[in-house]
Every structure is written in C-alpha cells, then in structure tokens.
Design a protein that fits this description.
Length: 398
C-alpha cells in the first residue's frame, strides 16, 4: 500500500504531539498550527519528504469520515431544548449573524472577483462562513472569559457548520455538469432527496438510537465502552442510510447528532467524549493535508485580491454581522468585538472544500480554492496565536 508512509508519519506525529499536549494548552501553539506547519515543511515547498494527492483513497475516506463525525458530534453537544428556550446570544449569532456573513461575503466577492462564476463565488462565501472554536481553544476553555461568551462562541461553532451545509450543497449542485441543463423537475427532486430524506433519516437514527442506548444502559445491559462507541456507529449509520435512500448523508449525520435521543447525562457525556477524541485525530490529519497538499497547490494563485478577501473574511465580513446581530443586547463593545474576532475558519471549511474538489475537481476552480485555503491558513495561525493574550486582555476590559 503506497499510502503507508503518510499513515506512519501521521500516527507518529499525533503520538509525539500528544506527549506535549498539556503544555500546548498553556501556550499559543495549537495542534492545528503544528500539523499545518509540519505539512508545509515536508511538502514540495520544503523538504519534499512525503507526497500524496487529493485523489488518494485515504484522503477521500478520511475527509468523508471526519466530516460525518464533526457534524454529528458538534450537533450532539447542543442542548436543543435549552437553546430554543433561552433564545440568547447563540440564536442571534446563528439566525442573524450567519446569514449576514454569507450575504456580505458574497457581495464583496462579487465586487472583487467579477471573472468568477456567481455560483462559484457563492460557494466560496458559504464555505468560509462556518466557524471553528477549536482553533481558539484557549478562549472556550479559559476561566477568565465569562461563561456566556464562551458558551455563545462554542454553540455557534457547533451548529453553524450544519446550517451552512444546505446552501453549500445547492451551489455545488448548480456547478455540477448534471445540473447545467436541468429544469424544475430536477431541482424539485434534488431538494426532496437531499433536504428531506437526509434530515428525516438522520433524525430517526439519532432519536431512536439514543433512546435504545438510554434504555439498555438503565437496564444494565450496555457497558461504558459500547456507550462511547455509539457516537461513531450512529454517525456512520445515519450517513449510510440517508445515502442509500438518495438523501444527503452529511445532513443526516448533523440531524442525527442534533436530535440524539440519549438524555442520561453520563451516557451522553461518554458518547460525546469518545466522538470528540476520535474526531480530533481525524481533524489533525486533515490539517496536515492542508499544509502538505492544499497550500502548495494554492500558493501560486495568491494575488493581492486573494489576500484582501482573506483578511476581510476574518475581519469585516465576520465582525460586522456579529455586531449587527448583537445590537440591543447588554454586551459591551469589547465583548462584541471579542466574539466577532473569534470566529476562526477551520475544519469545516477545509472539509467542505475537499468535498467540493472531490465532486467537481479543481480544474477551472483554482482561484476559489486558493482563497479558501489562504483564509483558513491565516485563521489557523492568527486565531491560534491571539487566543491566550486576547483572552487575558478581554478579561481586564470586558
């Protein structure tokens, strides 16, 4: 198997980084920063030590499994009833801030990149709209940051990747060759299959599976090991069943986690802990691929407009919608600015980009791909480095 070298290297890198992981938590150096940097160093940009293509089966399989796990686990961490009842900061960020981010990103991209297809522009804007709280882990785990601020950033990050998925899929379908001459019948069927069967199958798997786990655990039939394994089995089951019914498996995974029927706190915690641990290993491999494959492929397309849009995406396109969505709350200016800045672009954006490349290829879409890669690359380092010092600064002023 020609992919053994990258498997061995990734396993060794995860092991070595794990030895210093507690030290990393207390420093500005995050796991994603290390894996992206190492990927660049061993890429053709650096030592040219390892080579792997985006079309490699290992990359495709890892990307799909990681996206399924991320969507399921992120959604499962949200208490949906409490979120609906509270109607607080996360609802404003998701219901107002996220759509405004998509629209503003689309408008500015149209103005900057008039040679790009409108669906390609929309796809880029939508892929760069979800946030990744893990890139600023020091923020969501820091006790010096008020709990409601940490919760808002964490909940927003957990749900916005799933909310952004349907418009991303619609843009992707519009760019595919099959839809070029499609009529109303095609689009009606697409909507029904993708956005009805996916959520329905996922919700049924998550709710029923969770109920069975709860029941078996209370009767003493199920041990803690298999409670933890539930996260992977239900996520994959939701994905595979939805795909077999021609629904969208990724949407199904998200709804499976969102409507997970396990209500016993200890059991639910075990499911989430295992999913997060396994998911983190997969995510670190994806960040390695970002540095090893995507950055070298994209770098030659980074012009002034690409740098401008990447910077705007992390600042103006993110922070203005956040400020608008939080108008009328009791939050101070520093609090709103803090939430606005800590909207990192990370694992969801990379995985959605890989999904797009696998669906339509990279030829003819180099500019879109390069801008997304540059934005995520900047975010990995800027948000990682600034998490600890800005948390301390905000604690003194917020």
């Amino acid at each position: 198997m020609h992919e053994y070298p990258i498997i061995i290297f990734t396993a060794l890198l995860i092991f070595v980084f794990g030895l210093f992981s507690r030290l990393s938590e207390r420093s500005p150096i995050t796991g994603p920063m290390v894996f992206v940097a190492v990927g660049i160093i061993i890429s053709p940009f650096g030592l040219d030590f390892l080579k792997i293509g985006l079309s490699a089966p290992l990359v495709r399989l890892t990307a799909e499994v990681t996206l399924v796990m991320v969507l399921f686990v992120d959604a499962s961490t949200i208490n949906l009833r409490a979120l609906i009842k509270d109607k607080g900061l996360p609802i404003r960020l998701l219901g107002i801030g996220l759509p405004l981010t998509m629209v503003l990103g689309l408008i500015l991209a149209v103005l900057l990149f008039d040679q790009m297809n409108i669906w390609e522009i929309a796809l880029m804007a939508f892929i760069l709209s979800p946030t990744d709280a893990a890139l600023g882990q020091a923020v969501v785990s820091s006790e010096v940051v008020p709990e409601k601020i940490r919760q808002a950033i964490n909940v927003e990050s957990g749900l916005n990747d799933g909310i952004a998925l349907p418009p991303i899929l619609a843009c992707l379908a519009s760019l595919s060759a099959a839809s070029e001459h499609a009529g109303a019948g095609y689009w009606m069927g697409f909507v029904i299959k993708q956005f009805f069967f996916g959520p329905l199958v996922g919700a049924l798997v998550g709710w029923l599976g969770g109920q069975l786990v709860d029941r078996a655990s209370k009767l003493g039939w199920m041990n803690s090991t298999f409670q933890r394994l539930t996260s992977a089995s239900l996520a994959v089951l939701a994905f595979a069943l939805a795909e077999s019914f021609h629904g969208n498996g990724f949407i199904a995974a998200f709804f499976g986690g969102l409507l997970l029927g396990t209500h016993t706190p200890r059991v639910r915690e075990r499911i989430q802990d295992f999913g997060e641990a396994e998911g983190q290993q997969l995510e670190l491999f994806v960040f390695l691929i970002l540095g090893l494959v995507l950055v070298p492929a994209a770098a030659s397309h980074w012009d002034g407009k690409a740098w401008l849009y990447a910077v705007l995406s992390l600042t103006f396109i993110r922070m203005l919608p956040v400020a608008i969505s939080l108008m009328g709350t009791s939050l101070s200016g520093p609090s709103i600015a803090f939430i606005g800045w800590f909207g990192p672009r990370g694992i969801a954006s990379i995985l959605y980009l890989l999904m797009v490349i696998m669906a339509i290829g990279s030829a003819g879409h180099e500019q879109m791909i390069s801008i997304i890669v540059l934005t995520v690359l900047l975010s990995v380092f800027l948000h990682g480095i600034s998490a600890v010092p800005l948390s301390r600064l905000y604690a003194g002023r917020g």
